Amino acid sequence: MANALLIFKPDAAYRLAARAGIWGWLASERDWKVESLAWFQPPPSLINDHYDFLQGRPFFPWLVDFMTALPVLVGRVTASEDALKRMRHDLGETRIAQSRPGSLRERYGIFGGLNCLHLSDAAGTGEAEVARWAKFVQLDRVEVELEDRTQQPDHTYHLRSLATQVAGGIHVEAASQMIRELVAEECELERSELESLWRVTLGALS
Ligand code: DAT
Ligand code: MG
Predict the structure, then answer these.
(1) Into which CATH architecture does domain 2-134 fall?
(2) What is the value of pTM for the model shown?
């Protein structure tokens, strides 16, 4: 069995419809088992190590801010190597514009690297990631109960359209403001947390 690290990134941890949809898939445990789940805010040093292979890329400072701005949901999944491959297929490609239609990222990801979920890409990386993160967060028990439905609206596709405008330099202010309003509707967050989520969401578009 392979161990894989799983992270609901801020865009999935707080956008409640996205979280419910992704949890519905994960909790089906068709071919895998969720062994742990916990809230945890990673320090920048951990994200620097976790994404070491991306250091120097233009989006790297944003990526560290994205992954450290708020507590995220971190878990461990066990699966056969084939099942892990199927999970990654269900997840979809990294960048939202390239993500396979019907995949989780195409369904719930907003734009670019705002792609909802981290899942180790193979048994080897999973083992290393689990060992690294286990020094910071417990990966042995499920301590968070998530809902697979919510009253909160899902504005993913509207957000993607607005994000495309902002990234293209079109109606930047109006589109950014509408993104703030729609993200706020999707979440149940205090103002200061919402501002962090706005910052990392809009930060992905510049
Ligand atoms: P994945 O998350 O699909 O395993 P990865 O390991 O190559 O992708 O990259 C890790 C994260 O870095 C990815 O989830 C989002 C961000 N990222 C990677 N390439 C990117 C790009 N070209 N633009 C923006 N963000 C990117
Ligand atoms: Mg990866």
Answers:
(1) 2-Layer Sandwich (3.30)
(2) 0.98
